[in-house]
Design brief:
Distance between the termini: 85 Å
Number of strands: 0
Structural class: mainly alpha
Number of domains: 1
Length: 170
Amino acid sequence: MDPWLRAILSAVVDQFLTVLSFDVPAVLGRIRHELSLNTAELARVLNVSRPTVYAWADGGPAKPENRMRLALLRDVADTWRTRCQRPIGALVREPASDSRTLVDLLAAQQLDMAQIVSRLDHFAALIDQRIAQRRALGPSMRELAAKHGFNPIPKETLRQTLEWQASRGK
């Protein structure tokens, strides 16, 4: 066999084995978190049913073709993470000028990575712009309170106070 062809085949096999060897529940969680997908959306972009997603999350086996799809979506999630340190949020469901959402793009049988990366770049710029606008407004009440030594009220105390006030109204 030609050494060049042997090297190519070896690289392909190595890549394939890498794809097959990752922790499916961890990758599912990473995709779900970074891309802000609910279970139905995650199932849609993986081209599987919701029960399959739940089974994989519990450590059930995934077929090699499903692992390939997971690896592609993991790469999309990692690409997003390099552009923004926050999950994508509701932007994943916002339609673009072509009326398709990022979920729609991710659910396509063949992923158009150029279009997906372009959409991720657009969202990262949009988030940066929103953050800059918030900062231009000055510090938030929470930031001002912390600056002047006011400690936030613990959530449990707030909950108890609300329950007490609700019980007084009965």
